[in-house]
């Protein structure tokens, strides 16, 4: 995913990079829309969309090199796709079927891709942050030039793990970039109830690192800020915190109803600042893009997403006998007994996705 920047300014994205980014952002929006529909049709149990946060997610992730590791929070799985992960395998994770590399054992929408250096997010908020710092320290000890991306939501900054991670990284100058997607909400809790600080970015001062707040719906601003932080970390100058101010347009997840706790007028105001529309406007304005090409691209992406869904949905469940694998090098007697008991019983039909409890 080597990012191409303009040679005259190392942090200025080239038109080629912005066009690629724009395509990825539209692909993500298309995928999220289709998957939310599938969830409502009962074809998958749970889904978490990133709608409205495409710039904060992808314009930040694209500033890292392919060898850099990404420790995601809740809404950055799609960076895997941008880094070349197969969309079919990605979707198999949501279906929890045989094609899922996490073997149907993870919560849906908790993707992981070792082949693209991206760690599965954990449902337990904030745990990825100290892990990311640990990975960054390990890279430095091994003499690798790797930088680590450590994502967090605004809500997770109230977790102890956030402070532990920033403190350790600041003291030991770990090559890590903390990126906070401040989308104004942590399910039903607004950011105003999350912190008394004037911003999330300002917290960086206390940990001895630069902190910057950017318009998270402006892909160029996000890229510039994160690229500068990545370059700084790679040059051995230590960590940074980038706060991307954005907005969660949709529900927290397919199990949430935001009309119960937030004012629809707030959502409408943010819709007008749609990151995809903004980037498209810039590209068209700069004569790098036009509407006929836009329409053709959108049709192509919808076809790609639909084909991937078709293929992923057709795969069977993971084999039952695999349930007991991967815990012990040698299976102990009690698991062997349970495995035999399970295989002697008739297979239980897969429950309707509608019946699978989400969060
Ligand atoms: C330690 C912990 N506490 C609470 C929860 C329940 N929970 C799941 S997501 C979420 C909100 C997360 O908000 P934020 O960090 O802002 O991320 P966003 O969902 O807005 O992307 C909460 C409270 C959890 N998963 N883990
Ligand atoms: Mg949030």
Key features of this structure:
alpha/beta, Rossmann fold, binds thiamine diphosphate, binds magnesium ion
Give structural notes.
There is one protein chain. The protein is of the alpha/beta class. It has one domain (15-319): Rossmann fold (3-Layer(aba) Sandwich). 41% of the residues lie in helices and 9% in strands. The chain contains twelve helices and eight strands. The longest helix has 26 residues, at 15-40. Bound molecules: thiamine diphosphate and magnesium ion. Thiamine diphosphate (TPP) is lined by residues 74-75, 123-125, 153-156, 159, 181, 183, 185-187, 248, 252.
* Number of structural units classed as domains: 1
Mean pLDDT: 94
Low-confidence stretches: none
Structural class: alpha/beta
Cα-based radius of gyration, to the nearest Å = 21 Å
Largest sheet: 6 strands, parallel
**Strand order in the sheet with the most strands:** 2-1-3-4-8-7
Gist of the model:
This protein is of the alpha/beta class and 359 residues long. It is 41% helix and 9% strand.
Secondary structure topology:
Blueprint (H helix, E strand, L loop, with lengths): L14 H26 L13 H8 L7 E3 L7 H4 L4 H9 L22 E2 L8 H14 L6 E6 L6 H13 L3 E7 L2 E2 L2 E2 L12 H4 L4 E5 L3 H16 L5 E6 L18 H8 L3 H11 L5 H23 L19 H12 L15
Parallel strand pairs: 1-2, 1-3, 3-4, 4-8, 7-8
Antiparallel strand pairs: 5-6
Helix pairs in contact: 1-2, 1-10, 1-11, 2-8, 4-11, 5-6
Bound molecules: thiamine diphosphate and magnesium ion (MG).
């Amino acid at each position: 995913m080597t990012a191409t920047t303009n040679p005259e300014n190392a942090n200025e994205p080239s038109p080629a990079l912005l066009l690629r980014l724009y395509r990825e952002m539209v692909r993500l929006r298309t995928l999220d829309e289709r998957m939310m529909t599938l969830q409502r049709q009962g074809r998958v149990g749970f889904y978490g969309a990133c709608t409205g946060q495409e710039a904060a997610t992808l314009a930040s992730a694209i500033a890292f090199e392919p060898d850099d590791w990404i420790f995601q929070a809740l809404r950055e799985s799609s960076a895997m796709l941008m880094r070349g992960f197969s969309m079919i395998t990605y979707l198999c994770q949501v279906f929890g079927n045989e094609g899922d590399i996490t073997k149907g054992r993870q919560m849906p929408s908790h993707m992981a891709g070792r082949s693209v250096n991206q760690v599965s997010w954990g449902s337990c908020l904030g745990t990825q942050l100290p892990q990311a710092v640990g990975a960054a320290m390990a890279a430095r000890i091994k003499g690798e030039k790797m930088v680590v991306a450590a994502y967090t939501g605004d809500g997770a900054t109230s977790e102890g793990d956030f402070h532990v991670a920033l403190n350790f990284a600041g003291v030991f100058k770990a090559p890590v970039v903390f990126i906070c997607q401040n989308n104004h909400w942590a399910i039903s809790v607004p950011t105003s109830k999350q912190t008394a600080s004037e911003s999330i970015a300002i917290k960086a001062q206390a940990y001895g690192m630069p902190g910057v707040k950017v318009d998270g719906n402006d892909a160029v601003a996000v890229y510039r800020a994160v690229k500068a932080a990545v370059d700084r970390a790679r040059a051995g100058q230590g960590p940074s915190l980038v706060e991307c101010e954005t907005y969660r347009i949709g529900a927290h997840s397919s199990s949430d109803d935001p009309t119960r706790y937030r004012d629809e007028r707030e959502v409408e105001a943010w819709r007008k600042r749609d990151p995809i529309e903004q980037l498209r406007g810039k590209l068209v304005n700069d004569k790098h893009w036009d509407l006929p090409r836009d329409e053709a691209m959108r049709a192509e992406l919808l076809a790609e997403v639909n084909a991937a869904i078709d293929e992923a949905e057709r795969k069977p469940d993971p084999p039952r006998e695999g349930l007991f694998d991967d815990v012990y090098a040698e299976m102990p007697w009690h698991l062997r007994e349970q495995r035999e008991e399970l295989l002697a019983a008739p297979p239980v039909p897969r429950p309707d996705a509608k019946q699978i409890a989400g969060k």
